[in-house]
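so my prof wants the structure for this chain in the tokens format not the other one, which i didnt know existed until like an hour ago. anyway here's the sequence
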Amino acid sequence: MRTYSILFMIGVLTINAAAQNSIKILTEKNGISVRGLSVPNNKTIWASGSSGSIAKSVDGGENFEWQQVKGYEKRDFRAIHAFNEKEAIIVAVAAPAIILKTIDGGINWYKVYENTDTSMFLDAIHFKDPQNGLIVGDPIDNEFFVLRTTDKGEHWERQKTGYFKTAKKEGESFFASSNSNISSAYDFELLVSGGKVSRLWINGKAQDLPLVQGGSSTGANSIAVSPKQNALIIVGGDFTKVQAAENNIAGFILVKPYNDKLINQNNSLWDINPKLGNPHGYKSSVVFVDEITLIACGTSGVDLSKDGGKNWDLISTNSFHVVQKQPNSQSVILAGSGGRIALLNL
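here's what i got, hopefully its the right format
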């Protein structure tokens, strides 16, 4: 009887664990690839992707409304930032580079930036606070292309020369895989590059990454900052070798108490954390759920770590491009090909 009870309890715990880690598909749309995802609050979810497509939910994912932005039906909106259920900014990647904004929930969109340079390719958008944001793009004339706004995205200006204190290397660029290769912690602006060279950029200074690199499809794709802003996790790999799991992650820890007087010595404040295990295959996006729980996703599937990235469990082989946390919860939203947007409760 006692043995039966123990086995029964183990079985129940196994079933409950599997149920907790199940991924629920919320919406799908054939032929649409979603790489832009923004979750400003627990009720609001915005997603953007190919064929000028935008999806929005205002009830936590119970229902979604899809639209094609009028006049931009052939554009790929790989980057999005939503402030709330009414205000959002979307970024079309290739030439002409277009940035659109809505203040009425997507009923109307207006242009806030356009660049017709045929070399333009905008990769990601990030706001460190409601007013101040930046967008990174592929290099123009061998210089990284960065746009800034100080008025909630109403106007954008190119970053002045001199911000990048380390020279860009040949074949180094940014990936537009998940709108998550930019982040911020304290006063640090954080970028991760990929390609033939993959580096972490901290306020314009570069630090080498121990990620696979050397080819146009290799390197860092995504960076996540822990809730206490004392740890960074970076994921990537080689998107042409989906199942390859070596050197697809890097971590950094803040080794000194933050002090804004040390901001110009930023490289000495962050130390690499070598005690990390590799997620299963190429990963294009990663997010902290709490200080020790992480979700990483990619075309190789979805991985979960419950110990800060030391160990990873492959909880789904379904392909997703991007993951974002629902604020004030233990849940994440994932999105990918086929217009799939999904919920994972942890």
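also thought this was worth mentioning. The longest helix spans residues 2-20.
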